[in-house]
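lol so apparently i was supposed to do this last week
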Amino acid sequence: MTKESKGTIGILTGGGDCPGLNAVIRAVVRRADALGYKVLGIKNGWWGLVNGVGEPLTLASIRGILPRGGTILGTSRTNPLKQEEDKKKVLANLKKMKIDYLIAVGGEDTLGVAKYLVTEGVNVVGVPKTIDNDVEGTDQTFGFDTAVSIVTEAIDRLHTTAESHQRVIVVEVMGRHTGWIATMAGLAGGADCILIPEEPKTIDEICDTLKKRHARGPQFSIVVVAEGFKLAGGYQEATKDQKLDQFGHVRLGGIGEILAEEIEDRAGFETRSTVLGHIQRGGSPTAYDRVLGIRYWVRAVDLIEQGKFGSMVCLHGGKITDMPISKALKKLKYVDTELVRTAEIFCG
Ligand code: F6P
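anyway here it is w/ 6-O-phosphono-beta-D-fructofuranose bound
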C-alpha cells in the first residue's frame, strides 16, 4: 500500500555553494519522507524555477551524500526578480511542477527572492547559508565553521614559511561586506594584523603595526585581510573587473596583492600575498556545520508542517528557532565589536 502524500516540497540551493548543503538536503528528504511529503530538488538555484528544471529526491538518491561538499542540486546566482518575465515564469513553474511548499537555502540574495515570493502567496521557508556568516537573523550560518577551519589551517601553514624567510605574508580571504572569516580565523591562527570591511585603516596604520611587531623581535608577520576591506580615506574595495552579477555585486579580489606591494615599499619588509579564494568553500563540511545544517532543515520541514510560511530558521543562543524572513534581512550582521576589540589585542 502506498502512503498518501501530504504534498510536494521543492528545495533549492542558491548563491555561492558551501560545505554542508548536501548534509541538509539529505536531512530534509529524510524528515519529509517520515512526515509523508514528496521532495523535488530544483536544479541550480532560482535558475531551475525560471526554467522549470527539477528532479525527485528519494531516500535512494540522497544515500552517501552527508560528507560531500558542494550541492548535488547545483547552484547559481540567477536573480528572477530582475525581469518581470522571469518572475512570472517562477510562479507558473511552481504550479506546473506541482510544488506546494518551497524551501530556499541561501544568503541575503537568495532569501531576498524568497521574501518576494511570500508577498505572492508562495508557501516559502528560508534556511540561512553562507560562508560569510553575515545574515542578521541568525547567530551562525552553516558553511562558516568549515571556512574558518580551512583558513586557520592555511594560516598555520603560512606561519612556518613566513618565519623561515623572515617575510610578511598577506592572506586574502572571503568576506564581501563583513569580516567574520578574517576575524575568527585570524584569532584562531594567531594573525598579527586582521583587516576587515567594518574597520577601514590607512596603509600607515598597517605598516606601523607591523614595524612595532618586528621591532619587538619577530621578523615575520601574517596579515589576514577580508576581500571587502577598504583602505581608509575614501578608497573603494579592490575588484577583479567592473562586471556586476545579477544581484548587482561586483567580483571582489586583489586587496591582498595591493597591500603586499604597499607594505614592502613603505615598511621595507619582504612581502608575499596568497589568495585562498574558493578553497574556502570546497570540500567536506566540519562536524559542526553538518549538525547545524541538519538541525536547520529538520526545523524547516517542521515549519512547513505547522504552516509557518515566510519564516527563516535560525540559531539563537544555541537553540534552533525561527523568525520572519523580512525581519532577518533588514540589515547585515557585522562582526561583533567585542570580537573586533579582542582581535586587536593580538595585533602588532
Ligand atoms: O558566497 C559568498 C561568497 O563566497 C563571498 O564571500 C564572495 O565574495 C563570493 O561568494 C564569491 O562568489 P563567486 O563564487 O561567484 O565568485
